[in-house]
């Protein structure tokens, strides 16, 4: 669940959406009415905080955060936003996430590629030597007073707090996890005591993130990408924004977001290129993720039956069927994400029967090998492949469970009344330096190496994910025999296990 907090006018210019109507929509709703309708599925009774008095607004937000037992979505009431963007922001697993826009670089229109290193702009002074400043530029009506890095907000300023080379704005929506709710409450109370130091154009969301960052909370970032968000203050802006929002294909964005972004090479290039369209077709016809999972299971069992014959034509058909069993294994998750139909049963079915399909195919391959008169020693290889894969799944599960219990790394803190962020950036520099030595340095270097596309995909493939495993089974079984299939699974699986175990031991020691 999510606790929704609607913000009225910020301390700056009046942004109240009262009377601003979307004439193109049925019922001619106001901007605020539309937003409340969009958020009803998250929170039937959202908290509303009036603007005007910044100290009072911050204290009211502190009270809401203190009583919250779930994550919080803080969003200005004058927001025009796609439903899919709300969903993407609220489903984050980060401790805090803000929607940002980066100030375009000279000669570029890219506002969604934040960086935290020396930039390609024609700057005389590297960022590490730059002096903090009060951001005077404006972007979408907001003062540019945030330093946005590659994955998080590095620093935020106000009308009286300087920030080193500001390059972006906090557009409005801010998601804070339940574990940071108390930090948010304390931060808002401390900010309320400093309200007299803020300027008339300081935005309330900006002030909240300013406090969170200085209190050591990692605030992640997200750009709008192919979705729409804008704050509107006049009817003219509403009239301009409405057609612009309608012109963007929200359904296509939703479909693209239904595909996992961290899939392996085979899944990315040989399945997800078209499986998303099967998922949309299935969802629009009322098929549930569990029903798609059952189709995948049936195809897996049929593939095992084909392999069990030991005849070459049936082996080829088995290879085709196991491929499509994997396709529908991807489709069930994509249907769940596209239609937003999630359930404990579905998650259990997906995880359990992935293993079932794999192991029943092992049995079918071994049985077919024996039926073809090639000897019964194949069972040793089959058991070796099954045992190796079982151990890998156990290690994956145990490491994931242990990693979830690991507390997030703390970031440097800075007093709220510090006039600039020099001390914060110096502390971040020392932290980067400390983390560049020993095992941390090796892991960091290996992570950076992923910027090279060939190495990125090589790292994805070496761990032998399920897509590569099913592809290896399909190809080797269709072209060769079960012995080659099991040797491939055992050898590649052993390399993957050694690689994964080494990386996890290193990460456990840092």
TrEMBL record:
Keywords annotated in UniProt: Membrane, Transferase, Transmembrane, Transmembrane helix
InterPro entries assigned: CDP-OH_P_trans, CDP-OH_PTrfase_TM_dom, CDP_ALCOHOL_P_TRANSF_CS
Parts of the chain that traverse the membrane: 292-310, 316-335, 356-372, 461-480, 486-506
Comp. bias regions, Acidic residues: 109-124
GO molecular function: transferase activity
Family: Belongs to the CDP-alcohol phosphatidyltransferase class-I family.
Protein name: Bifunctional IPC transferase and DIPP synthase
Taxonomic source organism: Nonomuraea coxensis DSM 45129
Source lineage: Bacteria, Bacillati, Actinomycetota, Actinomycetes, Streptosporangiales
């Amino acid at each position: 669940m999510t606790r929704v907090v609607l913000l009225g006018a910020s301390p700056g210019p009046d942004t109240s959406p009262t009377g601003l109507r979307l004439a193109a929509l049925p019922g001619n709703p106001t901007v605020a009415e539309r937003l409340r309708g969009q958020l009803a599925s998250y929170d039937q009774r959202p908290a509303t905080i009036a603007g005007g008095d910044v100290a009072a607004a911050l204290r009211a937000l502190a009270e809401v955060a203190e009583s919250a037992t779930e994550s919080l979505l803080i969003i200005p009431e004058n927001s025009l936003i796609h439903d899919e963007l709300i969903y993407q922001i609220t489903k984050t697993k980060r401790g805090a996430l803000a929607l940002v826009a980066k100030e375009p670089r000279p000669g570029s229109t890219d506002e969604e590629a934040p960086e935290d290193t020396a930039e390609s702009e024609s700057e005389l002074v590297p960022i590490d030597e730059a002096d903090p400043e009060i951001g005077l530029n404006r972007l979408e009506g907001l003062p540019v007073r945030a330093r946005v890095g590659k994955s998080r907000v590095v620093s935020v300023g106000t009308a009286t707090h300087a920030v080193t080379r500001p390059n972006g704005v906090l557009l409005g929506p801010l998601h804070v996890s339940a574990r940071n709710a108390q930090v948010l409450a304390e931060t808002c109370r401390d900010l309320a005591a400093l309200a007299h130091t803020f300027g008339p154009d300081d935005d309330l969301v900006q002030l909240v993130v300013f406090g969170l960052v200085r209190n050591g909370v990692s605030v992640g970032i997200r750009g709008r990408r192919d979705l729409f968000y804008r704050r509107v203050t006049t009817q003219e802006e509403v009239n301009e924004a409405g057609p612009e929002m309608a012109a963007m294909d929200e359904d296509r964005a939703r479909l693209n977001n239904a595909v996992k972004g961290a899939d392996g090479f085979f899944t990315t290039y040989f399945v997800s290129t078209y499986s998303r369209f099967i998922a949309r077709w299935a969802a629009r016809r009322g098929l549930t993720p569990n029903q798609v999972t059952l189709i995948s299971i049936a195809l897996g069992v049929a593939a095992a039956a084909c392999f069990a014959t030991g005849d070459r034509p049936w082996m080829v058909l088995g290879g085709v069927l196991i491929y499509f069993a994997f396709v529908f294994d991807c489709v069930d998750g994509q249907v769940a994400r596209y239609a937003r139909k999630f359930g404990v049963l579905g998650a259990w079915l997906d995880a359990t029967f992935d293993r079932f399909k794999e192991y029943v195919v092992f049995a079918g391959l071994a049985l077919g090998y024996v039926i073809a008169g090639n000897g019964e020693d194949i069972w040793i290889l089959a058991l070796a492949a099954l045992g190796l894969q079982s151990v890998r799944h156990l290690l994956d599960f145990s490491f994931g469970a242990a990693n979830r219990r690991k507390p997030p790394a703390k970031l440097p803190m800075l007093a709220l009344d510090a006039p600039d962020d020099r001390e914060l950036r110096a502390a971040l520099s020392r932290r980067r330096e400390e983390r560049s030595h020993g095992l941390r340095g090796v892991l960091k270097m290996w992570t950076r190496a992923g910027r090279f596309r060939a190495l990125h995909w090589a790292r994805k493939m070496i761990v032998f994910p399920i897509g590569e495993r099913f592809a290896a089974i399909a190809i080797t079984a269709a072209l060769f025999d079960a012995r080659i299939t099991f040797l491939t699974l055992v050898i590649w699986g052993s390399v993957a296990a050694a690689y994964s175990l080494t990386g996890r031991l290193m990460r456990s020691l840092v």
